[in-house]
Amino acid sequence: MTTLTLQLKFYPGTQNRMIVPQKYYKQLKSIQTIKYGINQSYVECLSHHKDTQTLYISSNLKAKLNLAKHKTITMEFDQNMCTLLLYLGVFIAGFHSEQSLLGSRTDLFRRMSIIGNKLGFRTLFFGHQHILSNESKVYAYYWNGFKWDQAVFHIPSVVYNRIPNRKTEHHPNVMASKKEIESRAILFNHDFFNKWEIYERLMKNNDCSYLLPETILHPSKRKIIDLLEKGPIYIKPIHGSRGTGIVKCTKRESGEIECHYYHRDHAQINRYTNPNSLFHQLFPNGLKGFVVQKEIDLLKKDNSAIDFRIHVNKNEKNTWEVTLLCAKFAGKGSLTTHVQRGGSIHTIDELFSPEKTKRIEEKLSKTALKLSQAIDKEVNNPIGEIGFDLGIDAEGKVWLFEANAKPGFSVFLHPTLNEQAEKVFTFPYKYAFYLHNLRMNKKDYE
């Protein structure tokens, strides 16, 4: 592959033509296909003698490619194919050794980079420590087709936030870097959702409020004791993720309160005869920042409750699509269905007949798209993906348990779902293409 950076200008023309400086015509004359992001077209290559640094694109070809207003453009060409290169930045944390340079997600990021390359993108991975603030540049890692390499690039016009957890995202250096990125680019998936804020906003939406289980913020001890008389409850932190901090409480016939929770990633079961002992041990700082929900009698298979993970992504038209559906079981003795807690992942058709699978998938997809559109209207920053944890109760009603702004990649541990990763990973690029063109067409950007 050879690259060339030229100034870009457009001219009125009804043919799919690009006109290159005579200096480069010998290298470029055999090109018949031109690609820009997710679009490509037949092209005829001509030459001009006006200068040595300007590429002219006809208005017809510009429209065919949905080509934005660039001052300069980098061309990558080989034989009869030319790509007008785009860049997607991925803001991450957790860099490690050469063997797993980008942490535990290194191989998935490699696969993502290969997919991006097919769509005309070079993918740049960087952390807060790689931003060269004074120069508006990043010292980023990229997959060169054979190995990870590192070089200095301008901060891309679009950056995908994949900081892995809330603790890291709240680190002062990460927060400062996000502001720096936003001053020079569009950052999508800005941060993790505040669960209570999402709940409150959806409760005000008549199309979605019926999907939400009754939820109480900052519950009192008295309220929790009263709810336990009616059945099992879950107490959850509003800023938690991956099952961290969740406690399931059940009042047994003996009057004891049985609590399931995790301590240092190990499942624990405690029983309390005195509720005050429970609150003192498990909630020593009180219940501020927690919510309580009653347990829902979920659809079961082989006597195990099932919930469902649905991934939705924005496409190049800024509209939502369902990209992945799967079912999750809690592991033996596990409090939640999170894979990190011993849960297992299954395709829906592994568990149900073809007819029931179709009904479930249609019901879940319709619900997830409705929720995505509602959340999108309530969040000020661009969102490119959401992972929904939904349940279906014994009567067939759908419930929303959680909306995740940065759905994890653990679903790809399942071999069938792993085959879908390529499709899912196209969507950050499709949405980045939309955002890039939106930014470039609004103002000049270098």
From TrEMBL:
Domain ATP-grasp: 202-433
Organism: Aquibacillus salsiterrae
Transmembrane residue ranges: none
A family per Pfam: ATPgrasp_YheCD
Entry keyword Nucleotide-binding: yes
Keyword entries, A-Z: ATP-binding, Nucleotide-binding
Keyword presence, Cell wall biogenesis/degradation: no
A single GO molecular function term of this UniProt record: metal ion binding
Protein name: YheC/YheD family protein
